[in-house]
Amino acid sequence: MEKIILASSSPRRREILELIGISFLVHPSDVDESYNESNSPEDIVKQLATRKAMDIASYYQEGIIIGADTIVVLDGQILGKPKDEEDAFQMLNRLQGRSHQVFSGVAVVDAKTREVKASYQMTKVYMDPLSEEEIRLYIATKEPMDKAGSYGIQGFGAIFIEKIEGDYFNVVGLPVALLSTLLKDFGIQILKDMIHPKSIV
Ligand SMILES: Cc1cn([C@H]2C[C@H](O)[C@@H](COP(=O)(O)OP(=O)(O)OP(=O)(O)O)O2)c(=O)[nH]c1=O
C-alpha cells in the first residue's frame, strides 16, 4: 500500500485526515508562500498547494504527498493569515456583516513519478455583524492569529458564522471529498484501500 504524507503544519488538516481514518505521516513544508496578486484565487491556491506537495515529494523515493492552501477572498482581494492583531482586527472588521469566499487548493503528488493532480473548492461564508468590542474579545482568544481571514469556523468563530454554501471542510483547510476524488486518479480508493483498522468500530 502506498505511504501517504501530509505536507502541512496545520493541525486542522491533520485532524480532518484523521477523521476519515487513513494512516499517514506528517512532513510540513516551509516553501515560500508568496504569489502573484494578479493571478486568480483558484490558480493561487492550486499553485501553493502544488508547491508544498512538490517540495516534500523531493524528500521521498515513493509515496503519495498531499499539499493544501487556503485563502479568504473579499471584493476580489485576498486575505491570508494576519500579520499581527491590528491586521486581524482590520480583516474581521471588513468581513463582519457580509459574505466572502474561502478557496482551498489541494495537490496530490506521486513522489516516484512526480505526477501532480491539483484542484480547488470554493465555499461562500456569511458572517454575522460584529461590534468592535466583539472583534477585540475574539482576537484576545488568539484563535485568529494563524488562520486565513483571521477566524476559525471550527472554533470560537463558529459563534458568528451564520451559514455557509459549500464544503465545510474546505473552510477548515482541507476539502476532503475533493481530495478523495484526486486520490482516485492515483488508483487509491479511501474506503477500500486506506481505512485504518483501528478506526472501524
Ligand atoms: C477560514 C479558515 C481558515 N483556517 C486555516 C486553515 C489553514 O491552516 C490556514 C491558512 O493557512 P495556510 O497557509 O493554507 O496553511 P498553514 O500555514 O496553516 O499550514 P501549511 O501551509 O503548513 O499546510 O487557515 C481555519 O483553520 N479555519 C477557518 O475557518
Characteristic terms for this protein:
201 residues; alpha/beta; Maf protein; 7-stranded mixed sheet; 7 helices; 7 strands; elongated; EC 3.6.1.9; nucleotide metabolism
Explain what this protein looks like in three dimensions:
By secondary structure, the chain is an alpha/beta fold. The protein has one domain: Maf protein (Alpha-Beta Complex). It is elongated. β5 (99-110) and β6 (116-127) form a beta hairpin. Strands 1, 2, 3, 4, 5, 6 and 7 form a 7-stranded mixed β-sheet that branches. It is built from 7 helices and 7 strands, in the order βαβαββαββαβααα. α3 packs across α4. 32% of the residues lie in helices and 24% in strands. The structure holds thymidine-5'-triphosphate. Thymidine-5'-triphosphate binds next to α1, β3 and α5. Nucleoside triphosphate pyrophosphatase that hydrolyzes dTTP and UTP. May have a dual role in cell division arrest and in preventing the incorporation of modified nucleotides into cellular nucleic acids.
Short description:
Helix content is 32%, strand content 24%. It is α/β, with parallel strands linked by helices and 201 residues long.
What's the main sheet like?
7 strands, mixed
Q: How many distinct domains?
A: 1
Classify the secondary structure makeup into a structural class: alpha/beta
Q: What compounds sit in this structure?
A: thymidine-5'-triphosphate
Tally of extended strands?
7
CATH architecture: Alpha-Beta Complex
Task: Quickly name the level 1 CATH class.
Answer: Alpha Beta
Overall, the morphology is: elongated
Count of discrete alpha- or pi-helical segments spanning 4 or more residues: 7
Whole-number average pLDDT? 95
The end-to-end distance, rounded to whole angstroms, is: 22 Å
The amount of beta strand, in percent, is 15-25%
Give the % helix.
25-40%
